UniProtKB/TrEMBL annotation:
UniProt keyword terms in alphabetical order: Cell cycle, Cell division, Cell membrane, Membrane, Transmembrane, Transmembrane helix
Chief location of this protein within or outside the cell: membrane
UniProt source species: Thomasclavelia ramosa
Record GO biological process: cell division
Subcellular location: Membrane
PROSITE patterns reported in the protein's UniProt record: POTRA
Ranges that cross the membrane: 37-56
Recorded GO CC terms: plasma membrane
Domain POTRA: 56-125
Protein name: FtsQ-type POTRA domain-containing protein
Lineage: Bacteria, Bacillati, Bacillota, Erysipelotrichia, Erysipelotrichales
């Protein structure tokens, strides 16, 4: 009887130890789960605090490579808003493409770092022609885009560019797109360009060259007429004439 009672006490102690061990494990799991929940809450809180704070937004913009176009104009074109746009979400590709569409800008590269500092590097397009319409200076650059310069800030940059005369804005804009396709070595020899329409020939222009020669071209096909070495070859073929009228496949020359 005593032996059976002793055996029962041993079993009871064993069961009690098992229960205590189980309860201890459960408490440990609860503590671990609680710590995990607290950690997740802290992380979420920090993320929310970061995005609410100014540190998550773009902080500064640095512009380089510009001379004719102001930094303010480039930043405005980029549509980047400091202290408003989020560093991780603002697309630099969109800003880059927007800047490339700006007059007198040939190329642009926009980068940012993790601290919200933006760098804009541009390559400006060279002006290749100038035209005054209603007392306002308009400049065409090598991309064929036209810039309206009411303040006259580009005057010093276009002094060596050919002067275009007699154009209204619409014809000048149409002319500019084709003019940009003419080889630079030809453009550099042009002194003045006059809009010189004739009956049934409303696209005719008069090119006055630095050497005194005068070319007549239509602005809708002048890029084709003067492409590559065409101009140099025609001058070699007909060196002693003053007037050259480019019509289709033919060039009519006379003095």
């Amino acid at each position: 009887m005593a032996k059976r009672k002793q055996q029962q006490n041993i079993y009871n102690d064993y069961d009690r130890d098992q229960v205590l061990a189980y309860l201890k494990k459960q408490k440990a799991k609860k503590r671990k789960r609680r710590r995990r929940v607290i950690f997740v809450i802290l992380v979420i809180g920090l993320i929310i605090a970061f995005f609410v704070s100014d540190y998550s937004r773009l902080q500064t913009i640095t512009v380089s490579g510009n001379n004719r176009v102001s930094s303010e104009e480039i930043i405005t074109a980029s549509k980047i808003k400091l202290h408003q746009d989020y560093t991780f979400f603002k697309s630099m590709d969109a800003a880059e493409n927007a800047i490339k569409k700006t007059s007198l800008i040939k190329d642009a590269k926009v980068t940012k770092d993790l601290f919200g500092h933006v760098k804009i590097k541009v390559v400006e397009a060279d002006p290749i022609g100038q035209c005054t319409i209603d007392n306002i200076l308009y400049v065409v650059d090598e991309t064929g885009r036209v810039t309206k310069d009411e303040a006259g800030v580009l005057t010093t940059y276009v002094q060596r560019c050919p002067k275009l005369n007699g154009f209204d804005y619409d014809r000048f804009a149409a002319f500019a797109k084709e003019f940009a396709k003419i080889p630079a070595q030809v453009v550099n020899q042009i002194s003045d360009i006059n809009y010189a329409p004739e009956n049934l020939d409303d696209k005719r222009c008069e090119f006055i060259m630095d050497d005194g020669k005068i070319l007549y071209l239509r602005y809708d096909d002048m890029a084709v007429q003067l492409k590559g070495d065409n101009y140099a070859l025609k001058m070699e073929e007909f060196p002693d004439y003053k007037y050259y009228d480019f019509v289709g496949k033919y060039v009519y020359v006379h003095n």
